[in-house]
Specification:
By secondary structure, the chain is mainly β. It has one helix and twelve strands. The radius of gyration is 20 Å and the shape is elongated. The N and C termini lie far apart (46 Å).
């Protein structure tokens, strides 16, 4: 399901704000990795306070930034609501150069390296406002099976086909 990052992580239960989520994936036998995620946001964000970062690590190596999301204080954006109303707000969120609106957009980024375990980390900044909302959905890791894996799959398919004919 969709992950809504609360518009106010800086609260009595979480003084100072911020938060982190982590996922792990078995990437054994895969190369040419990438991560795609659907992103949407609406609000008058503040640079620094309303920042978000997706990072990755393979096999416990140091984290590498993958998608950096922060407000651009030099922009304004017209958001069209479902009923057709247009709302203009300053300081929209920008993810790796893509301006985010209230319509989901898929952002895909390459992941360098191969290994056994891919760790994806999402970090949210303080998010100390009540009028900005950031949402992500459909985080997908893709890769290409190694040639040796393809050969084994092909041989397994051939063996299964021969059994059916017998």
């Amino acid at each position: 399901g969709k992950v809504k990052v609360d518009e106010d992580l800086d609260n009595g239960d979480n003084p100072g704000g911020g938060g982190t989520a982590t996922w792990t994936f078995d990437i054994s036998g895969f190369s040419d990795l990438s991560m795609a995620v659907d992103l949407a946001a609406m609000g008058d964000f503040e640079a620094g306070d309303n920042s978000y970062t997706f990072r990755y690590s393979i096999d416990g190596n140091p984290m590498t930034d993958l998608i950096l999301i922060d407000a651009d204080n030099d922009l304004a954006l017209d958001y069209t609501l479902e009923g057709g109303t247009v709302v203009s707000l300053n300081d929209p969120l920008v993810a790796n150069g893509t301006i985010l609106s209230n319509d989901f957009q898929t952002l895909s980024e390459a992941i360098s390296g191969t290994g056994s375990v891919l760790t994806i980390e999402f970090e949210a900044g303080a998010n100390n406002g009540g009028s900005e909302v950031f949402v992500f959905d459909n985080l997908v890791i893709s890769g290409v099976p190694a040639p040796s894996s393809l050969a084994l799959l092909g041989l397994g398919g051939l063996a299964a086909a021969r059994r059916r004919r017998a």
